[in-house]
Amino acid sequence: MAEGTKERILRTALELFAQNGYLGTSMNDIAGQLGITKAALYKHYASKQEILDKIVERMNKMDYERAEAYEMPETEPDGFAEAYLHTPIQKIRTYSLAQFDHWTKEPFSYNFRKMLTLEQYRDSKLAQLHHDYLAGGPLEYMAAIFRKLADSDEEAMQLALEFYGPMYLLYSVYDGAEEKESVSSLLATHIDRFIAKVEAGYRSEAAGTAVLSRRNNG
Question: Looking at the domain assignment, is residue 107 inside a domain?
């Protein structure tokens, strides 16, 4: 029973954080929404910060589980350099579409994203979480993966920006769209075009290298 109550508190608190902001929600608000006393709430969580910490802990666990399920490198490039170098580009497509669904359709993750979007300009710690989960973090993650396709770190970051920038924009487009599945289709088309462009570039580069080799050998 206690576990069920703690889970209900987490989800209810996150829903309120997504609606009113973390800073705009009090323990009184959470208790009222749950229909329990503030004293009863404090039996499970000592503070609003503890609730937020548990929410972040849940998000980290979900991130790890998705990376594992889709056989993607974990989010620590230094420890998984070889894994990054051997990530097939089609696997990146599948994982990225799953990530988009995760952030737009899964209620817990959607509310977490909405909370961070609301609070990124009002609280430095939440701004850092927004960076890590939705902005710079994913960009750096993709740059590490694309490093195998690039001649330099700068080029890898440009590839990551070209790939992830539209995906980041489409989160907001999805939120306001009436035909939400059309937004998911837009993302799939973007990813397919990106992959085709990258693969065409490599075929062209390989052909050029072969011609140069024949000339040198001739």
Answer: yes
